[in-house]
């Protein structure tokens, strides 16, 4: 059911190239048609891929649809979602940055100014399941950052509706501009704009391979958050870990997708054997057992290491999206972890706590990119400007060195922009 690999052979990262040549060609064609035909192409592709005939009157979600969504969801669900939203909001409020500047005695003022992005597009996938938690994780940091216009796109269900849980989550997060369109065509609409959907400055949110390719293609025209890969978890455990806990947490990621990766790295052969048996037993009880079993078979692994230090080295090499520390001294191990999207510490911090409730963002770097990338945050929805104000005194002090550097690069115009100010100063002194 799950492979046994050594630390030398364990590597769950996928190829870095996204998609096949055929998929990339198809996405390029979709982007081109939406860019040049606007709404007409948007409606045509939606009917082709989703079987829904849209027009300008049906494209945008109306207030009555949101009210109906509340009526179609339980009060218990709405209460839980509001509680999660508040925790996410409180956590992300602490990430806010403030502009700053420093004035020196010579009249120089240097600083940095933070401003929110003007507009952001959030992609919310359809398909196997609705993920209202991801709506909160994308929209709330943007709201906290102060983004003025947040546009959400999501594929319509048969009949042209949007899953009620998605609409309730959007309403709780404060998103009011929602369009019933998905796939590469939705990304194109956000990037280029159409008659009905204004363009945005940044696109965030996960999607299928066509969405990932489309985001990759429009990057540069707009910003994007990341190219999200399949979900992944690594559990680092020693002999003190509960095998039932470990197996349950591995399955919590394996059930996401057949391409998801669930890996146990342990110093204990006895634990490895017990977890393998628990996986077989617990998987049978899952509603998504077939998906979980395929994920474990193709991308899951158990790696037994000679010592905890070797296990830590394996974890850092994998740079997992989610890392659980189920060892005797998890806080002692934490300082040696250098690459992980989110770290769950101790036996009572399972990954779903972070997915839904704790507050930190669950949109995390995948496929080993935690080596250089970070979770989605308020920082993703702001931009920085440097502030430079020189006085005449400061310019005269630094002019010679600036001119030297400019001329060393053959940029005479740069040097002249300094000299002309010195010459003007000399002329004023002569008078």
SSE layout and pairing:
Elements: E1 3-5, H1 21-37, H2 39-50, H3 56-59, H4 63-71, H5 75-93, E2 100-103, E3 109-116, E4 119-123, H6 132-145, E5 149-153, H7 164-173, E6 177-179, H8 183-192, E7 202-204, H9 209-218, E8 223-224, E9 232-237, H10 243-254, E10 261-266, H11 269-283, H12 289-299, E11 301-304, H13 308-318, E12 322-326, H14 330-334, E13 342-345, H15 351-356, E14 382-389, H16 392-408, H17 412-430
Helix pairs in contact: 1-2, 1-8, 1-9, 2-8, 4-7, 5-6, 5-7, 6-7, 8-9, 10-11, 10-12, 16-17
How would you characterize the overall build of this protein?
- By secondary structure, the protein is α/β, with parallel strands linked by helices.
- It folds into three domains: about 20-105 and about 115-225, Nitrogenase molybdenum iron protein domain (Rossmann fold); about 230-370, Rossmann fold; about 390-430.
- The chain contains 17 helices and 14 strands.
- Helix 10 (about 245-255) links the parallel strand 9 (about 230-235) and strand 10 (about 260-265).
- The radius of gyration is 26 Å and the shape is globular.
């Amino acid at each position: 059911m799950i492979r046994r690999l050594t630390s030398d052979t364990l590597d769950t990262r996928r190829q870095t190239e996204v998609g096949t040549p055929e998929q990339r060609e198809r996405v390029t064609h979709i982007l081109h048609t939406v860019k040049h035909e606007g709404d007409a192409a948007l409606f045509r592709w939606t009917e082709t891929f989703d079987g829904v005939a849209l027009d300008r009157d049906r494209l945008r979600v109306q207030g009555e649809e949101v009210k109906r969504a509340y009526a179609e969801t339980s009060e218990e669900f709405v209460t839980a979602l509001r509680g999660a939203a508040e925790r996410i909001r409180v956590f992300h409020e602490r990430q806010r940055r403030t502009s700053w500047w420093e004035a020196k005695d010579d009249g120089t003022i240097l600083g940095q100014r933070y401003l929110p992005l003007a507009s952001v597009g959030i992609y919310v996938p359809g398909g196997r399941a609705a993920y209202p938690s991801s709506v909160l994780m994308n929209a709330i940091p943007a709201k906290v950052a102060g983004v003025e216009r947040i546009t959400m796109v999501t594929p319509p269900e048969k009949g042209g509706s949007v899953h009620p849980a998605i609409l309730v989550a959007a309403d709780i997060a404060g998103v009011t501009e929602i369009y019933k369109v998905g796939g590469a065509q939705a990304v194109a609409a956000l990037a280029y704009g159409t008659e009905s959907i204004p363009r945005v400055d940044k696109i965030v949110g996960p999607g299928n391979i066509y969405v990932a390719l489309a985001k990759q293609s429009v990057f540069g025209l707009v910003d994007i958050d990341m190219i999200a890969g399949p979900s992944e978890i690594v559990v680092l455990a020693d002999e003190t870990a509960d095998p039932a806990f470990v197996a349950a947490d591995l399955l919590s990621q394996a059930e996401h997708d057949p391409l998801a990766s669930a890996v146990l790295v342990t110093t204990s052969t006895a634990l490895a054997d017990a977890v393998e048996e628990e996986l077989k037993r617990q998987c049978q009880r899952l509603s998504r057992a077939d998906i979980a079993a395929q994920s474990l078979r193709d991308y899951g692994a158990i790696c037994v290491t000679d010592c905890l230090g070797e296990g830590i080295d394996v974890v850092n090499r994998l740079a997992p999206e989610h890392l659980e520390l189920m060892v005797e001294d998890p806080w002692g191990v934490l300082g040696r972890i250098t690459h992980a999207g989110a770290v769950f510490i101790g036996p009572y911090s399972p990954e779903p706590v972070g997915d839904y409730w704790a507050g930190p963002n669950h949109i995390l770097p995948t496929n080993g990119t935690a080596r250089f990338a970070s979770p989605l945050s308020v920082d993703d929805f702001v931009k920085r400007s440097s502030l430079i104000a020189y006085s005449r005194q400061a310019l005269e002090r630094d002019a010679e060195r600036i001119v030297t550097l400019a001329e060393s690069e053959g940029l005479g115009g740069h040097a002249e922009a300094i000299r002309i100010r010195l010459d003007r100063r000399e002329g004023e002194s002569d008078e």
